[in-house]
Amino acid sequence: MVRMRKQWPDEGDLVVGTVHKVLNYGAFARLEEYEGKEAFIHISEVSSGWVKNIRDYVRENQKIVARVLRVNPKKGHVDVSLKRIREDQRTRKMQQWKIEQKAEKLLEFSAKRLDKDMETAYEEVGYPLMEEFGDLYGAFELAAEEGVSALDESAITDEWAEAITEVAKKNISPPEVHITGYVDLKSYAPEGVEVIKKALSVIDEEEISVQCVGAPRYRLMVKSSDYITAETILKEAADRAIALVEEEGGEGSFHRELEKQ
User: Fold this and answer.
1) Whole-angstrom Cα distance, residue 175 to residue 226?
2) CA 63 – CA 85 distance, rounded (Å)
3) Residues 6+ apart with CB under 8 A from 216
4) Are strands 38-42 and 77-81 parallel, antiparallel or unpaired?
5) DSSP string, 33-80
6) Which of 159, 174, 191, 202 lies in the 20 to 30 Å Cα band around 112?
7) For 103-137, what is each residue's pLDDT tens digit?
């Protein structure tokens, strides 16, 4: 169960719940991020249309994303709505919750390395990392990418930083993006074939693969950890090849392949 530091959600928050009781007039759901708390969904908040049978919309053990309408800690009540939320908001919240579930599992692995329970783990590092990085998974992701130094400035101990980094590196693969572009290379020199070969050789790097589409066009495919770096590598490689061909009296041009929407 992913835990929030605050005990109750705020009005307007999006929450994840598991329906555990469905009645004719509404449904009750356990709130996944707030231990021991449940929310009530009135039948009028299930759908924007007329609801004849509430069970056509919610069922026991169903995971839901809802918007908080009212919170009354004194009475222990949380009222939520299923209809006052867009589909993209529902999808985004559910994805976020699933990612934080993974983060909690990583925190559990880290705690076991230090022989600590989850209550202690959240108090010593979980909540502090959420406050500093925005979410728990973001801290693990940064540790996986940059190492223990990424946590040097955080308010956690060295032993926690080392445990988290070790777990992160073993369980989180670095992000990888792929982009494609094309260079058209033409040489009018007697040894034109050699000029083109030489031009292609200057872009032969680990991050780049080159394929002949059909002279004079060549496909350049770049993989990197982020789009900005990938774009830079692609453009600089194309520029080097074009410059070499132009020095030999030829001509060249670069075309970026548009991403599919």
Assistant:
1) 7
2) 15
3) 184, 185, 186, 196
4) parallel
5) TSTT-EEEEEGGGT-SS--S-GGGT--TT-EEEEEEEEEETTTTEEEE
6) 174
7) 999 999 999 999 999 999 999 999 999 988 888 99
Q: Rounded distance, CA 89 to CA 247, Å?
A: 54
20 and 30 Cβ atoms separated by less than 8 Å:
yes
Q: Decide: 43 and 51 in contact? Cβ < 8 Å.
A: yes
Confidence band of 261 (pLDDT split at 50, 70, 90): very low
Q: Which residues contact 147 (CB under 8 A, 6 or more apart)?
A: 165, 169
Structure tokens at 178: 């792929």
Q: What pLDDT is recorded for position 260?
A: 44
* Nearest in space to 37 (alpha carbons), one of 26, 45, 29: 29
H or E element in which residue 9 lies: none
- DSSP letter at 249 equals T
CA count, 13 A, side-chain hemisphere, 49: 5
The pLDDT tens digits for 175-220 are: 778 889 999 999 998 898 999 999 888 886 677 888 888 888 999 9
Distance CA 181, CA 242 (A): 13
For the record, the structure tokens of 44 come out as: 């009028």
